[in-house]
Description:
It is a single chain. The protein has two domains: 8-160, SPOUT methyltransferase, trefoil knot domain (Alpha/beta knot); 178-237, no CATH class. It has ten helices and seven strands. It has helices at 17-29, 49-53, 57-62, 69-72, 96-105, 123-127, 146-160, 178-192, 204-216, 222-237; strands at 8-12, 35-38, 64-66, 78-82, 93-94, 110-114, 131-133. It has a seven-stranded parallel sheet.
Amino acid sequence: MSAPNKPIIVLVRPQLGENIGKAARAMLNFGLTEMRIVNPRDGWPNPSAGPSAAGADIVLDQAQVFDTTAEAVADCEHIYATTVRKRGVTKPVVGPDEAGKLMHSQAGRHAILFGREASGLETEDVALARHILTVPINPEFGSLNLAQAVILCAYEWSKQAELVQPTAEEGLLPPASQEELDGLIAHFEKLLAPRGYFLPEPRADATRRTLRSVLTKPGWNHLEVRTLRGVMTTLGRGPREES
């Protein structure tokens, strides 16, 4: 397992093996070795990735493949979605430099999501993130390829390593993982659905995304998540009869 402040690079539904290889090369240039791949179009392993990696074989050999983005980041506490627009999801927006600072100063595992070459991340992928990560490029020519985006983020992370000193946070519990947060959200949805909270049906997906955004913002630790789930379990039982 990589050090907590080394971000995991997550390629979501990448299309070309060559681009996966180039992303691996970009990562290793700055000491990043943990790549996760979500539902690659041409399957995995991909014979086109090796030559493009130019020797970054350790990244490709250790790459893990997942069916969904949620599964790929389940053990992470901090998730950044690289996108040029918010797509209706209200989250804090940071640049690569600020994201690099957060990765070195905040405890827990950090993951950066990169979308497919043609269309980027889907709204459901962005909804999983705690932050939107946007590169300030020319608005009249926003043509940044996958490897370029990866190398920009990896470079800023590397640069911030010498500038940011981790702060001591004695007595604070570590943040909840994405898996714990997803469990909390699912618990809310389970209790709300029978009461018609997600009606009308055409608005259900948007309502679920808004609920996820609300529950993601506070940055709960695992004890707070467990406490909230205990509260919801108690409310779900109904009034307690006094003896």
